[in-house]
Design brief:
Strand content: over 45%
Structural class: mainly beta
Helix content: under 10%
Largest sheet: 22 strands, antiparallel, barrel
Shape: globular
Radius of gyration: 27 Å
Number of helices: 4
Distance between the termini: 50 Å
Length: about 700
């Protein structure tokens, strides 16, 4: 009888779970009595998840989540958090892309890759961040690291073997050293990854009598070096100085193969496209921070500088085979993109005796990018060369007052930002993009205590979401002779107004919210009837709006802890170029279940799902994903974790829409079914860290 590999792995997991129960019974009464006499330990069971006004906080340090090999995959395990298939972006259901903070310091995805899970104490998902969290982002993921004043040394080595469609390997090294007032940190990761992806689009243009369908597959060989280091010097109890650098160097070799059937009136073509691609993405980020308490006026002042650089190159050689006539060279595409961002900021904080706190600060940032586009057309031996330069300067100031008046906690603040943007091709005399605008972003939160177990919170916030810098550059990916993926230099920021009310009873909560968004960013088609080429790119739609109702229901019983989230969403996306189909409510649900078992075994079962989504313009299929993890700690220094993600292989996403008179059905196959085994070895001990680096660039997450 032939048994599939997933079924075999499932049996292994079941046997592993059974063995731990068997092991739990092997302790003899004599051994048990001896252990009890040797040591008396007073323990307190901590909840893995806590919920305050809809803000979910996760205790990472004392749960199975500390065995996950990297912080990005850790975030993907949390309620409402969704990780993109390429692990380059994170979204929160109903909230879009969040701001990410480490110890109240803003960071990006590259910084997450350099953060060791062993350094994380808690993670909190904040639904309605205050003005101090900047205007960009409707939610915040706040990561708090461990703190200690003890001299210590710790090193951790980790190895992860991951089996998806292809084999992937992660090797990590993390070390901390603290002596007196000085703390040093260093980390290094080497990853050999082999991501696979596939998607297809079937589209028709009835007015032009065109029908086309393609299926494209990319099989990548990727090398990643992720490393960083820094120092923290505590001058006295209130003042400190810190410096840190982190970097990610990545190279890709990725052949892309496409099969296309295209019908243009009476002309029918079957085309096979093969492109050989080599790419490089290098990122470096550095911080220089100084914090000083002015005792004469009892005010804390923070100042800092930050520099970021992102450098990307892509070289593609394309061949097409029309109707089995043989492959012929079509194009050679050489594309480069580079962005440098420098910023400086100051933050002040003044606390008053009547439980009031006043915060104020300012920031200046400057970004400059260059994108070079060089195409050689083999048929005509003609070169197309273009160079586009982009610059953006931001000047921002904010103020926030928070405190408590009787039974009412409040936080009110505002932020003012001025943005100046220029974009031009070097061959042009005048800028193609020229923007100068000032935006005002108020925020307010009031919490009314009914009694010791119940309260009601009211929130209002205006926020902005800006495209990342690479999206605002020129550049395109060749799929077949009729289809291109392109960037859009004309994208505008998205502005959102949101109001919300939350009712909290003990650790349960229900949250109602309504938002209106101007200029949201979604995909669209643009057809060039002269050259018979379809371009797929992001544009600003007219508007979107939505209602959400969210229930958070944590529960603990003996060795079982579960946190359940249920969100009902009614979303309406509108644009004059798109056909409005229907807007219907859909639901998101997630359940995180942790079982603390004997002999330091942990078993974790997580699942989440989305029902079919009708959002006005787009119709998206339902999804359901189940993950399972078993973890065991050995000899205090070794930790072994066996994981099986997306057990039922629900990895197909579909989307239907009609834009610019183009009917489209898209299908994406995500390579997210995974079996992995992780081994971590730690020696030395650090109970925490005082390391502080404050990100001073509010646009750092856009550097990609």
């Amino acid at each position: 009888m032939n048994i599939s590999l997933p079924f075999k792995l499932f049996l292994i997991l079941i046997l592993f779970c059974c063995s731990l129960f068997a092991n739990a019974q092997t302790e003899t009464p004599k051994d048990s009595i001896s252990n009890k006499l040797n040591e008396v330990v007073i323990t307190q069971n901590k909840k893995t998840f806590t919920n305050t006004n809809g803000n979910i906080k996760v205790d990472v340090a004392n749960s199975i989540y500390n065995s996950i090999p990297n912080s990005v995959d850790l975030l993907a395990k949390l309620p409402t958090v969704q990780l993109s298939s390429d692990k380059e972006s994170i979204t929160v259901i109903g909230k879009g892309s969040p701001l990410i903070y480490i110890d109240n310091q803003k960071v990006g995805m590259n910084d997450l890759n350099a953060l060791a899970v062993a350094d994380i104490k808690t993670i909190e998902i904040i639904q309605n961040p205050s003005s101090k969290y900047e205007a960009e982002g409707r939610s915040v993921i706040l990561i708090t690291r461990k703190f200690s004043k003890k001299d210590s040394f710790r090193t951790e080595i980790s190895e992860v073997a991951s089996f998806k469609k292809n084999y992937n390997n992660y090797l990590g090294f993390n070390s901390n050293f603290k002596k007196n007032k000085l703390e040093l940190k260093a980390n290094f990761n080497y990853n050999r990854l082999n991501p696979w992806e596939n998607h297809s689009i079937d589209y028709q243009i009835p007015t032009a009598d065109i029908a086309s369908k393609y299926d494209v597959t990319a099989d990548t060989k990727r090398k990643q070096f992720v490393f960083g280091g820094g120092l923290f010097y505590k001058i006295n109890e209130d003042d400190y100085f810190s410096f840190s650098v982190n970097s990610k160097l990545q190279t890709d070799v990725f052949p892309i193969n496409t099969i296309t059937d295209n019908k243009n009136k009476d002309e029918i073509n079957h085309v096979v496209t093969a492109s050989d691609n080599i790419g490089r993405k290098n990122f470096v980020n550095s911080f220089l921070n100084y914090s000083k308490k002015i005792k004469a006026i009892d005010m804390q002042v923070f100042t800092g500088l930050q520099y970021s650089n992102f450098d990307q190159t892509s070289l593609s050689n394309v061949q097409d085979n029309f109707n089995d006539s043989g492959f012929e060279l079509t194009q050679n595409r050489d594309q480069k993109f580079k962005v440098n961002v420098f910023s400086g900021r100051i933050d002040t904080e003044k606390k008053f005796k009547n439980e009031m706190k006043l915060e104020a600060g300012g920031l200046y940032s400057s970004a400059n990018s260059k994108s070079d586009f060089d195409i050689l057309y083999y048929e005509t031996n003609v070169k197309e060369i273009s160079h586009y330069d982009f610059s953006e300067q931001n000047l921002a100031g904010y103020s926030q007052l928070s405190g408590k008046i009787k039974k009412v906690d409040f936080s009110v603040g505002f932020r003012v930002e001025n943005t100046n943007v220029d974009g031009k091709f070097r061959s042009d005399l005048t800028p193609l993009v020229d923007k100068n605008y000032t935006k005002f972003f108020p925020k307010a939160q009031f919490t009314f205590a009914i009694d010791s177990t119940r309260n009601i919170s009211l929130n209002y916030a205006k926020t902005i979401s800006r495209p990342n810098y690479s999206s605002l550059s020129q550049g395109a990916t060749y799929i077949n002779p009729y289809f291109l993926y392109a960037r859009n230099i004309f994208l505008d920021p998205t502005i959102t107004d949101e109001i919300a009310a939350t009712f909290q009873y003990h650790d349960k909560s229900v949250r109602l919210s309504y938002y209106q968004t101007k200029d949201p960013v979604y995909n669209t088609f643009s057809f060039d009837d002269q050259n018979n080429i379809m371009t797929f790119k992001d544009i600003n739609f007219d508007k979107s709006s939505g209602f959400t109702t969210e229930f958070v229901l944590p529960f603990t019983y003996k060795f079982w802890t579960t946190t359940n989230s249920l969100i009902f969403i009614l979303e309406k996306i509108e644009d004059h170029s798109a056909v409005f189909m229907s807007s219907k409510p859909y639901a998101y649900f997630s359940s995180n279940n942790e079982f603390k078992l004997p002999k330091e075994y942990f078993f974790n079962l997580n699942f989440w799902g989305l029902t079919k989504q009708y959002t006005g313009v787009f119709v998206t299929n339902p999804r359901f994903v189940v993950d399972m993890t078993v973890s065991k700690k050995f000899l205090k220094k070794w930790n072994c974790t066996l994981s099986w993600n997306n057990i039922f292989k629900n990895n197909i996403q579909t989307e239907k829409f009609t834009i610019n008179k183009v009917n489209s059905k898209a299908r994406y196959v995500v390579d997210n079914q995974e079996v992995s085994i992780s081994i971590k070895y730690s020696f030395g001990k650090v109970k925490g860290t005082e390391f502080k680096e404050k990100s001073i660039d509010e646009n750092e997450s856009r550097v990609r």
